[in-house]
């Protein structure tokens, strides 16, 4: 890793949170994160609560906390930043390790039913991205799912997310997600907006306003290019991809 990235990640938990407008350890934000994770991703989680799940770039461990609250017992988390691992421990989230994702995955081939990477892929160079996705694919069980959130270059404020963090290297569109996953031999099963979730009066208003805005964006897109595929306009997008059942590892063939 380049020296400047090592320097940034050494204080990442504090500097990234402050830059985003949240003080480190903000408990209200954490409670919202845990709640929103449950609403967004529960439908994609396996019914078997003993299924092994790995969260890459787990940060403070909010997603892991949510999984354990739902009863999942075989949950692991890794993060490159020692400070993020310490933050997770401070929140009472055990089992989080400081580790390189590629190395960690390469030692656990065909192990996980679900692997997640929320706001992780954009930190990779193109070469690092494909190395990571290959490792993810090989660590998934046949039929296992990979879920990720990435900056959406097609989004209204996609550039904001792309450049909001000095360590970001990439941004994506629905089309480039499909292309990238095909190269990595992962089958995309869902691409969706990462937008407002209704959990009260204010959030319901936000959701309704966003629906009106996105309708206008869809009309504008149709008028400009005649293309209304992938109507995903939030600043981030979420995608789910599957390792094909019985798929051999390219590195074994």
Structure write-up:
With 253 residues, the chain is of the alpha/beta class. The protein has one domain (3-195, 230-242): Rossmann fold, CATH 3.40.50. It has helices at residues 3-9, 12-19, 27-41, 62-69, 82-90, 101-106, 126-139, 158-164, 174-183, 201-225; strands spanning 53-56, 75-79, 96-98, 112-118, 140-151, 187-193, 236-242. It has a seven-stranded mixed sheet with strand order 3-2-1-4-5-7-6, sandwiched between helices. It is globular and about 50 Å long. The chain starts with a helix and ends in an 11-residue tail after the last strand. Residues 249-253 have low confidence and may be disordered.
Helical content stands at 40-55%
The CATH class is identified as Alpha Beta
How much is the average pLDDT? Answer: 90
The total of beta strands comes to: 7
> Which fold name fills CATH's third level, the topology?
Rossmann fold
Stretches where pLDDT is under 50 for at least 5 consecutive residues are: 249-253
Overall geometric form: globular
Number of domains: 1
Q: How would you write the strand order of the largest sheet?
A: 3-2-1-4-5-7-6
- CATH superfamily label: Vaccinia Virus protein VP39
Sheet with most strands: 7 strands, mixed
* Secondary-structure element series: HHHEHEHEHEHEHHEHE
Strand content: 15-25%
Which structural class should the secondary elements be placed in? alpha/beta
CATH architecture: 3-Layer(aba) Sandwich
Separation of the first and last Cα atoms: 30 Å
């Amino acid at each position: 890793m380049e020296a400047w990235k090592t320097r940034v990640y050494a204080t990442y938990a504090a500097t990234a949170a402050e830059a985003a407008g949240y003080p480190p350890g903000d408990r209200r934000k954490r409670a919202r994160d845990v709640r929103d994770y449950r609403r967004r991703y529960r439908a994609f989680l396996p019914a078997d609560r003993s299924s092994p799940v790995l969260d890459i770039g787990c940060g403070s461990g909010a997603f892991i906390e949510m999984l354990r609250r739902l009863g999942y017992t075989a949950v692991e988390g890794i993060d490159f930043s020692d400070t993020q691992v310490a933050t997770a421990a401070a929140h009472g989230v055990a089992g989080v390790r400081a580790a390189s994702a590629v190395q960690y995955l390469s030692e656990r081939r065909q192990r996980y039913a679900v692997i997640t990477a929320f706001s992780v892929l954009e930190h990779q160079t193109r070469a690092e991205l494909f190395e990571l996705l290959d490792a993810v694919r090989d660590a998934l069980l046949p039929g296992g799912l990979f879920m990720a959130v990435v900056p959406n270059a097609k989004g209204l404020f996609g550039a904001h997310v792309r450049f909001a963090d000095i360590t970001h290297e990439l941004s994506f569109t629905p089309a480039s997600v499909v292309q990238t996953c095909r190269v990595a031999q992962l089958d995309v099963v869902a691409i969706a907006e990462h937008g407002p979730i209704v959990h009260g009066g204010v959030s319901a208003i936000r959701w309704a306003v966003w629906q009106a805005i996105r309708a206008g964006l869809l009309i504008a897109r149709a008028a400009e290019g005649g293309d209304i595929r992938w109507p995903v306009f939030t600043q981030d997008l979420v995608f789910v991809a599957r390792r094909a059942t019985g798929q051999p590892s390219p590195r074994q063939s």
